[in-house]
Design a protein that fits this description.
With 1012 residues, the chain is of the alpha/beta class. Among the domains are: 45-214, Vaccinia Virus protein VP39 (Rossmann fold, 3-Layer(aba) Sandwich); 247-376, Distorted Sandwich (Hnrnp arginine n-methyltransferase1), CATH 2.70.160.11; 384-477, Up-down Bundle (Methane Monooxygenase Hydroxylase, Chain G, domain 1); 496-644, no CATH class; 659-812, no CATH class. Helix content is 45%, strand content 16%. The strands form five sheets. It has an eight-stranded mixed beta sheet with strand order 16-17-20-21-22-23-24-25. A hairpin with an 8-residue loop joins strand 14 (353-361) and strand 15. It is globular. The termini are far apart.
């Protein structure tokens, strides 16, 4: 057929199309339109057309017509193209992890809404909004479609002017029909190349301008949309586009009579649903930025009626582009609601809030979707009030009511004009106020009453205290101290109220950003998201400033951290999903906050089990709670006292240090020999500086720009002062002269982290290691916090040493107990971070030394002992797993027990001066070592005990005490036995020596045994 003949026929077709008469009600306009098209189709003889003519005809339709108007024509073309293919059973899905049957792919041609939406999106993106484009116009774009099916979307892209389209399809049977359809319509392999392969893994021949992937069910269940895009984005040009752009997921709880037993039901049959809650958005994905396959959503929804629900209804909205959206339940195959069956029905109460949590991986099987529905958490976990009965609360309630009434009556009885200077009546009233305030505080600590009821008692007491304070009290002796104490208790409650109010405001603001329907006000979100970002960062700062101290119970702190984590994640999804610019500083702060929240949550993950009594530990919940509150109360006092001594700190810094002089240099025992320890004077003290048990943050700091030349001179001076000199051995190797031959280990000590450039310059590290490579040392050790352990830098330093020199990195874990490390020590990292660091060191051919403190602040002797033993067992397990995982049987884990000591001006010194802390007994350390040997842990760990020689010099070290509390000489003997054990690791010999000391000092030993 010539062009003239084809044009003539097109005119006849247009003329013969039936028109819908005005006012006709027999059929809808769409029905009339479809009927007219079917009439026309019967007159088009595709077989008499050449492929080029068919292509021209199809292009005109695709570019300039709504798909619904030519869908039947495309179906007829598809049937004509594939009728001669031997396809077998088209209902069979491919024998692959993903993929639809050929029959399902063909049915997509009948989904006119879905295909038209993609046509619009392709037109917007490829043709930049042109309304009419000439056929065969070449935009020069390269496009890849994943999950090609019939090839209709690939055909549309080519028709709109793509230079080249790659259509990836996993089902071999569907590949045949796709190629046949495209070629029949005139789009051969030079224009649309069909690739048989898995789009989650395949490679492409060239870079692409656009990815089109419609492998989506509601919620992104069942199909690997994210995995496909993550793979194909490797080939996407920097300014490339992805269709779709965004994917929104919503959930609501529903009643579903007659729900089937399948885990997930696509609601194509429109099963009657009765919503029982509000609807909430639980996830939003921006495919340009989001790469996470694991999806998790946590939302708060409100029950709208009393109901027993069996399923959650999941719905989705898809933004193909910023202008083209597919709403839920508008397509036949795309965006149908999914009903996810609950394992057991749940009863809801109208008006109550519920927390719904859904977790799954994109493309998951129905059985792998995790759902958790529970009443929205109050500030206290249910288990936070174990064994507390209503009677006890009733008793306290009567007590508070009586006390408040008595205080009010007493104040009313006071005559302001007749107050003498020694008025005992006023002192009694104030004493009663103080007792009531303390009693309220204790009730809160114990978990009695809901917080709103406690707040009511506090409010009433505060009003009475304020009324009392308006009396002329200036003449009353000794009343100021009591007034301050009451004011402090009430101030703590006020602070918590402020935190609660700010949290509520922050959470409400983030909820407002998270729409419950599909009508998203993007401008409002863009305007308010940065404000919410600032609020949540401030919320975290407030929370972590106070922690549990005097303000929160540990379970309340846990819930606050959990809430922050949930809403931080929700805010991040909104920012990423809507591609909102919040600024580089906010992005960095949000990233840091996420890491901090993750650390806190991991360290506190045992709190619920501890509360429920399901976890055995060195303390129960009440003891941990009391310890935590006491700890932070005291730490706040310490910080205030330290601020008051600011002048002393300043004067200390004003004494300029000699930058060429090292801090300390000494020898100590090591396994099978001795070690030389040199502490260098770096640029500053420990930059982290927040651990409660040490003073290394500032005491060794110089606040000077220490250069590599200074470090080199410190090294030379320390080596000279150590009296070590080199001689040649019989085999020509360098040895230490005289009685120093067993000094094989060199410990590089700094106040903080050797790998932190702000503390130790990189060039200085290089200089030290180059010097060490020329000396007889065969083992080199340096210390670092986990966050500075850079694998590349460690391997670089290791490469500077001789092949016979081993490298060891020391890390301060302090304890394997998460709550003690989180609340008491404030170490700042988690066990999972520690374990990753150990694995990295082992993989790099480096050994590890792990510090563990004996007796952190406020632990009893017995608790400290149990904590150290548990930590050793944990490290034994980690060492075994690391050897197996890294295939390094020679990996050595050193367990370095560090007996706590007191340094001037530190927190332990503050406690010691108040009589609230004593250093551990050396008998405690000895028993720890003895128990570890008895259990065989010395065969898997290199157990070493640190010395108490440090800088700044300790004022009090570990020691045994006589019955009168005075220092006992048995201390030196136990210390000597411990150092001998360091050298020979002989558990039997150590046990024998310890028994001799115990017999020599029976009264001291008996005093130690009597300790709790």
């Amino acid at each position: 057929m010539t062009k003239e003949e084809r044009d003539a026929k097109d005119k006849i077709i247009q003329k013969e199309k039936p028109k819908l008469k005005p006012g006709s009600k027999s059929k809808s306009a769409e029905q009339e339109k479809q009927a007219a098209i079917c009439l026309v189709n019967a007159e088009i003889d595709f077989e008499t057309m050449t492929p080029e003519e068919r292509r021209h005809h199809v292009q005109e339709l695709i570019v300039n017509s709504d798909f619904a108007s030519f869908a039947p024509e495309m179906q007829n073309l598809f049937l004509a193209a594939t009728k001669k293919l031997d396809l077998g059973n088209k209902e069979l899905a491919p024998q692959t992890e993903w993929g639809l049957s050929t029959a399902d792919a063909e049915r997509c041609l009948t989904d006119t809404v879905r295909t038209e939406k993609f046509r619009q999106a392709l037109k917007e993106t490829i043709m930049a909004g042109d309304t009419v484009v000439e056929a065969n116009a070449n935009t020069g774009k390269t496009i890849v479609e994943a999950g090609a099916g019939t090839g209709i979307l690939a055909m549309m892209a080519a028709a709109m002017g793509a230079r080249k389209v790659y259509a990836v399809e996993i089902n071999p049977q569907t590949v045949k029909t796709c190629r046949a359809f495209l070629e029949y319509c005139g789009f051969d392999q030079n224009v649309v190349e069909v690739i048989e392969g898995d789009a989650t893994k395949c490679d492409l021949p060239e870079q692409a301008d656009m990815i089109v992937s419609e492998n989506m069910y509601t919620g992104l269940f069942a199909e690997p949309q994210m995995q496909i895009i993550n793979n194909l984005r490797r080939f996407l040009k920097p300014d490339g586009k992805i269709i779709p752009e965004k994917f929104f997921s919503y959930l609501e709880l529903v009643e579903v009579p007659g729900l089937t037993k399948k885990s997930v039901v696509r609601n194509e049959a429109k099963i009657p649903l009765k919503p029982a809650t509000t609807r909430a958005q639980f996830d939003v994905i921006n495919f340009d930025h989001d790469r996470e396959v694991s999806r998790q959503g946590i939302v708060i929804i409100k029950a709208t009626s009393d109901a027993t629900i069996e399923a959650i209804n999941v719905s989705s909205v898809i933004d193909l582009t910023s202008q083209t959206r597919i709403h839920s339940n508008t397509c036949d195959f795309l965006g149908q609601d999914e009903l996810v069956r609950l394992a057991t029905p749940i009863s809801l109460k109208a008006g109550e809030l519920y927390q719904a949590e859904i977790e799954y991986a994109v493309g998951c099987k129905p059985k792998d979707i995790k759902i958790k529905i529970e009443p929205a958490k109050k500030l206290r976990l249910d288990a936070a009030v174990p064994e507390k009965t209503k009677k006890e609360e009733d008793k306290k309630r009567v007590e508070f009511e009586t006390a408040l009434a008595a205080i009010e009556s007493s104040i009313l009885d006071v005559d302001p004009g007749l107050i003498p200077s020694a008025d005992e009546q006023l002192k009694k009233i104030l004493s009663r106020i103080e007792t009531t305030a303390e009693s309220l505080r204790q009730a809160k600590v114990k978990g009695l009453f809901e917080l709103f009821e406690l707040s009511n008692f506090y409010d009433r007491l505060e009003k009475l205290f304020d009324r009392f304070g308006r009396l002329p009290l200036g003449r009353v002796e000794g009343i100021e101290e009591c007034m301050n104490k009451v004011a402090e208790i009430l101030e703590l409650e006020k602070k918590q109220r402020e935190i609660e109010a700010f949290f509520d405001d922050t959470i409400e603001s983030i909820r407002d950003l998270n729409p419950a329907d599909e009508n998203i006000d993007l401008e409002k979100i863009k305007r308010d998201a940065p404000i919410c970002t600032a609020k949540i960062i401030k919320s975290a700062k407030v929370l972590f400033d106070y922690k549990v101290g005097g303000t929160f119970r540990i379970d309340e702190f846990y819930i606050y951290v959990e809430k922050l984590q949930i809403y931080h994640a929700a805010l991040q999804k909104i920012i990423v999903g809507q591609h909102i610019e919040v600024g580089e500083e906010f992005e960095k702060m949000m990233h840091n906050l996420q890491q901090e929240l993750n650390r806190h949550m991991e360290n506190l993950q045992g709190v619920p089990e501890l509360l429920a009594g399901k976890m055995r530990d060195i303390m129960n919940f009440d003891e941990y709670n009391e310890l935590s509150i006491k700890m932070t109360d005291l730490y706040v006092q310490y910080l205030k006292a330290r601020e008051g001594d600011a002048k002393a700190v300043v004067s200390k810094k004003e004494n300029r240090a000699n930058l060429n002089k090292y801090v300390s240099c000494q020898e100590a025992t090591a396994k099978d020999g001795r070690r030389l320890m040199i502490e260098f004077r770096g640029r500053k003290g420990c930059e982290f500086g927040r651990c409660s048990n040490c003073c290394f943050a500032t005491d060794n700091a110089t606040d000077e720009n220490v250069k590599t030349s200074h470090i080199s001179k410190q090294f030379n001076a320390a080596l000279r002062d150590s009296s070590l000199s080199v001689e040649q051995g019989p085999d020509g190797r360098s040895l230490w002269a005289g009685d120093k031959k067993d000094v094989y280990k060199f410990d590089i000590l700094t106040p903080g982290s050797f790998l932190n450039d702000n503390e130790m310059p990189k060039d200085a590290r290089t200089e030290i290691f180059k010097k060490l490579a020329q000396l007889p040392f065969t083992q080199i050790m340096f210390e670092s916090r986990i966050e500075y352990l850079d694998e590349e830098e460690i391997i670089r330093l290791k490469g500077l040493l001789r092949p016979d020199q081993k490298l060891q990195v020391a890390i301060g874990l302090e304890t394997a107990n998460n709550i003690i490390r989180e609340v008491i020590i404030n170490k700042g990292y988690t066990l999972s971070e520690f374990e990753k660091a150990i694995e990295m060191l082992a993989t790099s051919g480096v050994d590890a030394q792990v510090y563990s403190i004996i007796k952190p602040a406020l632990l009893s002797e017995k608790q400290a002992k149990e904590d150290s033993v548990k930590t050793a067992k944990y490290l034994t397990d980690i060492a075994d797993k690391t050897r197996e995982k890294t295939n390094r049987n020679d990996f050595e884990m050193t367990f370095k027990l560090e007996q706590a000591f007191i340094q001037d001006g530190g927190f332990l010194d503050f406690l010691h001066q108040q009589g609230k802390y004593e250093t551990p007994w050396t008998f405690t350390t000895a028993e720890i070592v003895e128990r570890l040997c008895a259990e065989g842990l010395d065969k898997k760990l290199n157990i070493q005990i640190g010395t108490s020689h440090d800088y700044p010099p300790p004022t009090t070290t570990a020691q045994n005490r006589r019955p009168d509390g005075q220092y006992c000489p048995s201390t030196e003997q136990v210390d000597a036995a411990l150092q001998e054990f360091n050298n020979d690791s002989d558990g039997a010999r150590f046990k024998k020596r310890l028994l001799e000391i115990q017999r020599q000092y029976p009264e001291t030993f008996a005093s130690w045994q009597a300790l709790e």
